[in-house]
Automatic annotation (TrEMBL):
<protein>
    <recommendedName>
        <fullName>Germin-like protein</fullName>
    </recommendedName>
</protein>
<dbReference type="Pfam" id="PF00190">
    <property type="entry name" value="Cupin_1"/>
</dbReference>
<keyword id="KW-1015">Disulfide bond</keyword>
<dbReference type="InterPro" id="IPR001929">
    <property type="entry name" value="Germin"/>
</dbReference>
<feature type="binding site">
    <location>
        <position position="154"/>
    </location>
    <ligand>
        <name>Mn(2+)</name>
    </ligand>
</feature>
<dbReference type="InterPro" id="IPR011051">
    <property type="entry name" value="RmlC_Cupin_sf"/>
</dbReference>
<feature type="domain" description="Cupin type-1">
    <location>
        <begin position="58"/>
        <end position="206"/>
    </location>
</feature>
<keyword id="KW-0325">Glycoprotein</keyword>
<keyword id="KW-0964">Secreted</keyword>
<keyword id="KW-0464">Manganese</keyword>
<keyword id="KW-0732">Signal</keyword>
<keyword id="KW-0479">Metal-binding</keyword>
<keyword id="KW-0052">Apoplast</keyword>
<feature type="binding site">
    <location>
        <position position="113"/>
    </location>
    <ligand>
        <name>Mn(2+)</name>
    </ligand>
</feature>
<comment type="similarity">
    <text>Belongs to the germin family.</text>
</comment>
<feature type="signal peptide">
    <location>
        <begin position="1"/>
        <end position="25"/>
    </location>
</feature>
<keyword id="KW-0675">Receptor</keyword>
Length: 216
């Protein structure tokens, strides 16, 4: 009859524990948000410190504050807010838009986006790249879906008479975002240069800067 030596049991336990940790590491890489973001994502959180909460995001249950110039708000669930997304190529967001409001023209440089209308209706669209610059616009009702290809300018506007809620998914855990109006008029980009590079009258540029918090 074979008798196991005590040291064999210790060795077996160590091997199994090591295998468990390596399997977890291969299965997922929950973001350690205290680490520095790189082009490949965040450093992995120690698997022994990972909990089910790292894979759950509850912030989208409630909409944000739409009392602003756009009458709309977007609440992101990117890797910075949802660490379990790290390395998975996924992200989520919720947009709430009041009648007459809009999510302004913007782009996600690192991801394609798909939206699902959960409440109300929206008019949504995107602009294809140069030189064609074709505009694709569609009114979407509750339950309908639209996709925006990576990097293209797109928007959602509430042209209906009731509150609209849109749920968005992305093909990158850190899609990035740049809003056209903020990029042009919400910073210290010289009004003179904005005029020269957009052909918008400098007086109008300064008016828009005052409206959006820019200067210069």
């Amino acid at each position: 009859m074979f008798h196991r030596h005590p040291s064999f049991s210790i060795l077996l336990s160590a091997v199994l524990l090591s295998h468990l940790h390596s399997t977890q590491a291969a299965d997922f890489c929950v973001a350690d948000l205290t680490s520095r973001m790189t082009t490949t994502g965040y450093t992995c959180k120690n698997p022994t410190n990972v909990t089910a909460d790292d894979f759950v995001f509850t912030t989208l249950v409630r909409g944000g504050n739409t009392t602003n110039i756009n009458k709309a708000v977007a609440v992101p669930g990117f890797v910075q807010q949802f660490p379990g997304l790290n390395g998975l190529g996924l992200a989520v967001a919720r947009a709430d838009i009041e009648p007459g409001g809009a999510i302004p023209l913007h782009t996600h440089p690192a991801a394609s986006e798909m939206i699902y209308v959960a409440e109300g209706s929206v008019t949504a669209g995107f602009i294809s790249g140069a030189p064609s610059n074709v505009v694709y616009v569609k009114k979407l009702n509750k339950g309908e879906v639209m996709v925006f290809p990576r990097g293209l300018f797109h928007f959602q506007a509430n042209t209906g008479e009731e509150h609209a809620t849109v749920i968005a998914s992305f093909s990158n855990s850190d899609p990035g975002v740049q809003v056209v109006s903020s990029a042009l008029f919400g910073n210290d980009f010289s009004s003179f240069l904005v005029e020269k590079t957009t052909n918008i009258d400098e007086a109008e540029v300064k008016k828009l800067k005052a409206l959006l918090g820019g200067s210069g």
